[in-house]
Automatic annotation (TrEMBL):
Source superkingdom: Bacteria
Native organism: Kaistia hirudinis
Amino acid composition bias (Basic and acidic residues), ranges on this chain: 66-82, 90-99
Region Disordered, annotated ranges: 58-99
Official protein name in the record: CopG family transcriptional regulator
């Protein structure tokens, strides 16, 4: 163990003494254990984050979505065009009919 000297605000020091007394430990031991727990938690959090980001690749919601090509396929768009419609009739001008 390494001995260190720290400087605390009086209110912080008083709070830490009370918390250490509640835990039945000396201030030095209580602070050491608290810092050690924080260090482990930070290491686990970083490891978990790195594992998540470099994971095998979660397919996510997009895996079940149709592809763009499937959505805009010409065959599907042509279903709205009716091939059995007659071509537009040629209208004659009313002037030509003498009207």
């Amino acid at each position: 163990m390494k001995n260190v000297t720290i400087t605390l605000d009086e209110k912080v020091a008083q709070w830490a003494r009370v918390e250490a007394a509640k835990a039945g430990k000396s201030l030095s031991r209580w602070l050491g254990e608290r810092l050690e727990n924080d260090m482990r938690h930070a290491a686990y959090s970083l490891t978990d984050l790195e594992s998540f980001l470099s994971g095998p690749g979660y397919p996510g919601i997009a895996a079940n979505m149709p592809r763009r090509d499937d959505l805009y396929d010409d065959r599907d768009l042509r279903r709205q065009q009716h091939s059995d419609l007659q071509p537009r009739s040629q209208r004659t001008d009313e002037k030509d009919q003498g009207g």
